[in-house]
């Protein structure tokens, strides 16, 4: 069993200690635990929310937190993680910008005895655990809803994103759901890179090329807001669905006659808190699940009135 890290402790994590059979006297040791968090980006409300929740959680146990922003650059993420390892982190929470590309960093951390938990997006390599939304279900629910609102017929487009497992799973789920409607045809799949400005331009081009488009699925809310601006400017009647549950998206969904009709909402606070809790349990020597799926919720106009991250 790994030795207990020396850091201040609160009631929140007392059950983990008892379950691991640890002596309570060890909890009084003063040295703080070091947690490193490497995010694929932090200019997105979803990851801002996740970062804030992690800051609160680590502060509550007296741990030191180091946070880096890869800015969707896998080379930067590898360098960031290497730097955190040199600073002596005990736990690495990784949100990869490239599921395969971060494998060497995951292995490096593992070889140094660092507990590694991926959050939101799966990472290749010797992970201790992965915590993430049921992304396939998110795609299914959003596109099932879209298909129903289109009356089971019409041309539909998909606004894709970066090649990480959650995005791939959302698109796969959407395709499966739409495939159950014989009258619906997917006529365009374009990469909006999950960024509002990029998605705006891509959607404008899609609408020009597909003037009969009736529905659009965006892999995330940040991109969907750019897509929404393009739809509104075009004057076309295109229904939009997405994934995330971001505050700005929820506001748009609530508006009367909005083209944005639903989003499969995630729970970023829950994901990162679970990731930290599992990492702590593993650090203390407990057996932990390799994967922890987190439910999503389809939020339409009615549910948007009360939903918030």
From TrEMBL:
Cleaved signal peptide residues? 1-28
Domain of life of the native organism: Bacteria
Q: Where in the cell is it found?
A: Cell envelope
Q: Where is the Periplasmic binding protein domain?
A: 38-280
Keyword tags: Signal
Instruction: Write out the similarity annotation.
Output: Belongs to the bacterial solute-binding protein 2 family.
Q: What is this protein called?
A: Substrate-binding domain-containing protein
Species: Pseudomonas quercus
